[in-house]
Amino acid sequence: MVEGLMYLLLGAALGTVGGLFGIGGGLIAIPALGVLFGLDQQMAQGTALVMVVPNVLLALWRYHQRNRIELRHALPLAVFSFLFAWLGSMWAVGVDAQTMRVGFVGFLLALMLWNLLRLFMPVAPASPTLRHGWPWLGVLGSFAGAMGGLFGVGGAVVATPILTSVFGTTQVVAQGLSLSLAAPSTFVTLVTYALHDSVAWAVAVPLAIGGLLSISWGVKLAHALPEKVLRGLFCGFLLICAVLLALEV
């Protein structure tokens, strides 16, 4: 009972963070599960995905309500991310857990450095339309989906900075489109991990319930914060996750 309540509260905290950054909460759930509960990398990723899938779907709906997501942009992202997430997840379940953890830390640090650099680079005004359409959205969906399948983070964390810097969207629009990419890729990745017995269901279910109860708060906060503040918080968030996991390597 006490453990279940603890997982529920952790899920609520992770859901708020997931809504704030448009990433479903998995990016911080994975190091938390590894550090706090001693799960190996694949088990942490699979367990986090049980929370991430419903969180992503709810956050996607909330973002769409506040800032309509264009189907013509979301569809190529979703289709290609689904295909490449499946390939990435099939590879991930066969990799040594320690090697996977080292790779995940490197992945987080690379993302953090890229987002940090962007805070100090000249920023072109955000465009009301995407600077690049098909087939470049398919390319982004493929890359982000593969990274999401490999590391169990849905690909949104990869797609968001690329959409703002290369495609010229605002941070909020990028997070909404990234969630449309993440929805199918997280689902197929979860199925793959579950079929390979890499999900701790007793931990995952209360995490998912807590996340669903709180993710709307994060989405509301994301729309209230200045864009530069949101990006700065995201960099700090990535660094904390990397440090937590590095302690376990």
How far from one another are the termini? 31 Å
Order of helices and strands: HHHHHHHHHH
- The helix content is over 70%
Average pLDDT = 81
The tally of strands reads 0
Q: Which structural category fits the helices and strands?
A: mainly alpha
Detail the poorly predicted runs: none
Rough outline: globular
Number of helices: 10
Beta-strand level of the residues, as a percent range?
under 5%
Task: Report on the biggest sheet.
Answer: none
**Count of domain modules:** 1
Radius of gyration: 16 Å
Name the descriptors.
10 helices; mainly alpha; 249 residues; 0% strand; 80% helix
How would you concisely characterize the structure shown here?
With 249 residues, the chain is mostly helical. It contains 10 helices and no strands. The chain is globular and about 50 Å long.
Explain what the structure shows.
The chain is mostly helical and 249 residues long. The chain is built from 10 helices and no strands. The longest helix has 26 residues, at 41-66. The mean pLDDT is 81. The protein has one domain (2-246). It is globular and about 50 Å long. It has helices at 2-21, 26-37, 41-66, 71-92, 97-120, 136-151, 156-165, 171-195, 201-224, 227-246. The protein starts with a helix and ends with a helix. Helix 2 (26-37) packs antiparallel against helix 3, helix 2 runs parallel beside helix 10 (227-246) and helix 3 (41-66) runs parallel beside helix 9. 80% of the residues lie in helices and 0% in strands.
